[in-house]
Each structure stands twice: as C-alpha cells, then as structure tokens.
Write a structure and sequence with these properties.
Blueprint: E1 2-7, E2 12-18, E3 24-30, H1 31-48, H2 54-59, H3 64-71, H4 85-95, H5 97-100, H6 106-117, H7 130-149, E4 155-159
Antiparallel strand pairs: 1-2, 1-4, 2-3
Length: about 170
C-alpha cells in the first residue's frame, strides 16, 4: 500500500492510502492529534513486520471510518477489529508515545509495554526489545524530519509494508 501524507497547513494534513487493488481511502486530519500517532503506528508496524495493526488493516480493505470507530469503543460498536494483534499494536503505540515526543528513552518505552501488558496476565510481545525500540526511535526521527522539511502542499510517500531492505518479522 502506498501512503500519501500531504501537508495542507501547520494544522491539517490529508492522508490517502492507495491499496494494492487500486482502491483508495482519503481523510483530512488535524495534524496535532493524528500525525505523530500515525507515524508511531507506521514505525512500530514496519519495524516489527506486522500486518494486523492500523496500517495492515487499512491495507486489507478496512475503511478509515470503520477503524476510527473501533478506536473509540462505545455501545453497539464491533470491537473485533481491535482484537489480537491490533490490540497489542495499540498498546505498544501508546507506550511509545513518550519516545516519539522525546520524553522517554527506548528502555523506558520497553518497560512501559511490560508494565501495561503483564498485569493483564500475558507476556509482552517478544518483538518488543531494546533493539526494536531503538529502530522505532530512528524511524520516527526520520519521519518527523521528512515531514518538517515538507513544504505546504507537498506530499510525503510511505510504503506499507516497508521497503524490502527494512527489517521484517
């Protein structure tokens, strides 16, 4: 899938996903709320080689509105989208937010995942290691740098899954 992020202003951006079958999904988003979160998803999902997180579900044909509703649980919403790998990815992404904002170290981020997941009676994912956290940190640094250098109206393109030269699981 090709992900196109277009900088509309300092406040908004457009995200367009072009799936392998040629279908597309497009949405305009408030950058402050979504951009870094989406970057964390991309860095985590590509560094771990996952296909069941946000980007993988989007690539498989799920719609952005359907995924957005699944992220905001309420009565009558089908929560099966956030089961299994998707739920694990959301937990890891949440724990890596401090890393993305330069408020936590890779070590602290890995520890946060452990502290969040172990009380649920399950072990943290085996792919959440210090090396993994450092890889995510570097990918986030590159993504933020590329975004910052992008002029208004410019488009940043990402591939999901990541290019063949990048680490896979």
């Amino acid at each position: 899938m090709l992900i196109r992020l277009t900088k509309l202003s300092d406040l908004k951006h457009r995200m367009t996903a072009v799936r392998a079958d040629g279908s597309t999904a497009t949405v305009e988003l408030v950058s402050r709320s979504f951009l870094i979160h989406d970057f964390i998803h991309y860095a985590v999902e590509t560094a771990a080689g996952l296909s069941g997180g946000f980007w993988g579900l989007l690539a498989s044909g799920k719609g952005m509105e359907e995924l957005a509703l699944a992220m905001r649980p309420s009565d009558g919403i089908d929560m099966t989208l956030l089961a299994g790998e998707a739920a694990t990815v959301e937990a890891v992404v949440g724990c890596f937010t401090g890393l993305a904002q330069d408020r936590a170290t890779p070590e602290e981020s890995v520890d946060a995942v452990r502290r969040m997941i172990e009380p649920q009676g399950r072990p943290p994912p085996d792919w959440v290691t210090l090396d993994f956290a450092r890889t995510v940190q570097e990918r986030l640094r590159r993504l933020r740098g590329e975004w910052k250098a992008l002029p208004y109206g410019g488009t940043m393109e990402l591939r999901f899954p990541a290019a063949s030269g990048e680490k896979k699981r």
